[in-house]
Amino acid sequence: MEHENDITAPLSRRERPAKTPLTREGIIDVAVTILENEGLGKVTMRRIAADLDTGAASLYVYVRNTEDLHARILDALLGRAAPLPRAGSWRERLVALLTGYGTVLFEHPEIARMTMTTHPVGPHYFRLVESILEALSEGGVPDPVAAWAVDVLLASVTASAAEHSGPSTTGEGSEALAVLAARIAITSGETYPHIVRLGDEMLSGTGMERFTWGLDVLINGILNTPRTPSASASS
Amino acid sequence: MEHENDITAPLSRRERPAKTPLTREGIIDVAVTILENEGLGKVTMRRIAADLDTGAASLYVYVRNTEDLHARILDALLGRAAPLPRAGSWRERLVALLTGYGTVLFEHPEIARMTMTTHPVGPHYFRLVESILEALSEGGVPDPVAAWAVDVLLASVTASAAEHSGPSTTGEGSEALAVLAARIAITSGETYPHIVRLGDEMLSGTGMERFTWGLDVLINGILNTPRTPSASASS
DNA sequence: ACCTGAACACCGTTCAAGT
DNA sequence: ACCTGAACACCGTTCAAGT
Predict the structure, then answer these.
(1) A194, B133 in Cβ contact below 8 A?
(2) Can you give the pTM of this predicted structure?
(3) What is the rounded distance in angstroms from the CA atom of residue A144 to the CA atom of residue B208?
(4) Which residues from B are below 8 Å from A147, CB to CB?
(5) Residue A88 and residue A96 in contact, taking contact as beta carbons nearer than 8 Å
(6) What is the pLDDT of residues A55-88, one digit of tens each?
């Protein structure tokens, strides 16, 4: 029984298997684990290095800098997502595609926030874009419109997920708005009549209901908004 | 002449006018100045304090923490923006309102990024919301739709501005996409046929053209998407 | 009440030196 | 080529002590 369960004894090679040789994949893996357990704030070079039993400097062989690291995490998360839908009408498929993407980002709001600025790259993201274009094309959306629509759709989903971020617990954002609305109502019922009147309505609905409605707005808008080559000159 | 121009002598009350008494307004002012000259990255407690000839700890009397500080900066920026439009049709006014808001955020993409998560508060933001609701109401948009639409519109503008952020120079984002598209074309012309075919189209247009089109999509969508009270139960 | 210096617990990144 | 320790130049926040 010597020190078989002796926690204080230094870890032998047997117990900690040879200290994995440090690959980019391994680094990203550790990063994703930390992200899922402790949030993006803890995903630092130093912390990842510590989990890998090395110094932060060692990571710079595999990732250029922190931004690069984050972009790669995003790619990895997309890879872990559900497979893309193949059944249903083009519109059902489109909604499913965007909802699936949204689900990943809603589960990792900090990543969503990041995605606002760091463009995703990698095969999984491109397959998603490809599928969206395919659905739009099947829906009879003209190529020029579809080309711009992908961006609008994906950005909207990302923004939606990013909004539900923040360091606080679930309903904090809405609560802040509610408190605020109340304060406004007290301060000046006359200055902001519309806000006072629609205050409750503005806070109504679940996240999912609003998300779905937003998608409908976008798709309906896309179906009703031609892209004039550049019609800003004439009246 | 004693030490009238003696740089090494400690600054007297006359030369540095009494060291402004440290108000919240003064703090935010310095923060905005640093933001405009050196970017959000330099807007740190320590740096602001240094510009104010004090220690970082002193700021905590006036701002709760860094997030609070940032939210107040945003409010200040909104206050510096152009006055809200009062002329034109409801739709023209709506577009003008959103374009004006967008302009502020496009000039400060880092703030836009921040706005994705930190909800703006303050009189200027509310006046904007109020005006949007007013325009939508005049446009015959039903109250429940208008209430949700404000959010979608503002979030979309914010997201649009945030996208053009990033630490790099102007066209970096698109360039990355282009490089990427090229890589895809080489790697697998067969796996992503739609992307390859629409690659150029996806990168076409100026930021303003895309922004305006996006607004049209949204408004058209809003005009064509009713809000069923909660119709997800029935088929 | 407001202000301050010093301390605590962190960061990213670089570099010379090792293997 | 890969890895490392140490160093550089920073952070936010707290706290006891001053005024």
Answers:
(1) yes
(2) 0.78
(3) 16
(4) 198, 201-202, 204
(5) yes
(6) 999 999 999 998 888 888 888 888 888 788 888 9
